[in-house]
Amino acid sequence: MSRFAGIMLVMALAVGSGFADGPFFADVTAQVGIEGKAQAAWGDYDSDGWVDVYISGRLYHNEGGQQFALANESAGLRGGGAGVWGDYDNDGDLDLFLWGGEGALFRNNGDGTFAEVDFPELPTIVSRCAAWIDLNSDGLLDLYVGGYETWKEQAFYPDAIYINEGNDTFVEHWQTPNAEKWASRGVTCADFDEDGDMDVYVSNYRLQPNVLWRNYGDLRLSDVAVLYNVAGVPNAVVSYFEGRKYPSHGHTIGSAWGDMDNDGHLDLFVGNFSHPSAYQDRPMFLRSEGPPKYRFVDMSAQAGLHWQESYASPALGDFDNDGDLDLYFTTVYGGDHCVLYRNDGEWRFSDVTDASGIEAAVTYQAAWADYDNDGDLDLLTGGKLYQNRGASGHWLKVRLMGDGSAIGAQVRIRLGPQVLTRQVESATGEGNQNDMTLHFGLGETSHEVELEITWDRGTKQTVTSPVDRLVIVKKE
């Protein structure tokens, strides 16, 4: 049997020439025809090999990496608001859930059009986030929807979980109890403890503790944020809506999972907005200690992120193809500026914003994708699409084909003492979504590499591939 059995190899362009002659990114917004500064979700909805993007009410079809065409009318999408992609009916194409207001679910018909299907009315009312996740390990994607707050009525809205029962049917399973409702701003999921099912991290605002729902695979969830050191740092007690009193933590807007130190375990970046008061949590780099306990250690002090008040939504991606995940982090106050931090290894990051070519913007939008299929990551932020000008280093893109868009699957590539890890995820930051095709920068590695795939529910698969191309792997 060929060592490439079970995979499809798709050739792509050659290795880039590097950034020595100018900025890392070029603003191509005008020439490609994209508009919209709100949260963005990348996803190849028509399975033509070119990743498309949904920007809060605007569906853009990728025309061969050259332009984007507004496709709402032809696709049959109505309404607006932010959304997230996931194949909830396991027919091989991406469906779209919108979490604003009462919520809306659109099934992909497989021909470039969508049909709205019935979905229970959301209790969240004001929501800023949602994520697809298979909570009961039945091979069908469920939904976790975050509830925010209303300042006028001085009340919190609950988070809610909807279980996919098949045949276009979702049933409400759970709402946050009144005494435990928080102002959630972001929800992002990952199998952080490597037990075969995805867990849920909820980023809460108003100095509230963040929540880590550990998933036991049978719809039992337990908040282990304090136990695993990811709730934030408690300080003086504050009073807020509904007579609630709690120790102050952070104003977390969005968080992102990713293996930032290449040890094979998913770490967590917590994106805290913070006023000058020292008792408010600053942004946090949290390193997973891995097995057996999978607890997290705060590495923020040595990471070197300079403080700005209005940090908002983070996105992790290896923009320079050197093998480790870099950080892009938005801001939302005038006078502050979005930043790009290059990962230099050993939990040290360098501010390369000035050299990046990315302009200052007030935005919650931050999402990575290789929209032009040239092997390096491009960035959508602040209503602008920034094309990567050609990162030096080898690379590999991996598209997994499994239940529910393979959300929850993890891929590892071992390069000497390092283990590069990527996961297929739904939402990240505050309501954004990176492309579900996994991207590995490989630096100087030019030989074949072995992919260790852990599918959702823990099934293992190993394949070997040459570098500098797209690899499509179907679950055995």
- Share in β-strands: 35-45%
How much is the average pLDDT?
A: 94
Give the helix proportion (percent range): under 10%
| Largest sheet entry | 4 strands, mixed
Tell me the number of strands.
Answer: 40
Strand order across the largest sheet: 1-40-34-37
Pairing-aware structural class of the strands and helices?
mainly beta
From the alpha carbons, calculate the radius of gyration and give it in angstroms: 21 Å
Characteristics of this structure?
476 residues, 40 strands, mainly beta, four-stranded mixed beta sheet, four-stranded antiparallel beta sheet
Walk me through what this model shows.
The N terminus is likely disordered. The protein has a four-stranded mixed beta sheet, with no helix packed on it. A four-stranded antiparallel beta sheet has the order 2-33-32-31. It has a four-stranded antiparallel beta sheet with strand order 3-4-5-6. It is mainly beta and 476 residues long. It has four helices and 40 strands.
Give me a quick take on this structure.
The protein is mainly beta and 476 residues long.
Question: How would you summarize the topology of this molecule?
Answer:
Layout: E1 7-11, E2 25-27, H1 29-32, E3 40-43, E4 52-55, E5 58-63, E6 67-70, H2 72-75, E7 83-86, E8 95-98, E9 104-108, E10 114-117, E11 130-133, E12 142-145, E13 149-150, E14 155-156, E15 160-164, E16 170-175, E17 184-190, E18 199-204, E19 211-215, E20 221-223, E21 237-239, E22 245-247, E23 251-258, E24 267-273, E25 284-288, E26 296-298, H3 300-303, E27 311-317, E28 326-331, E29 339-343, E30 349-351, H4 353-356, E31 366-369, E32 378-381, E33 384-388, E34 394-401, E35 410-415, E36 418-423, E37 438-443, E38 449-454, E39 460-465, E40 469-474
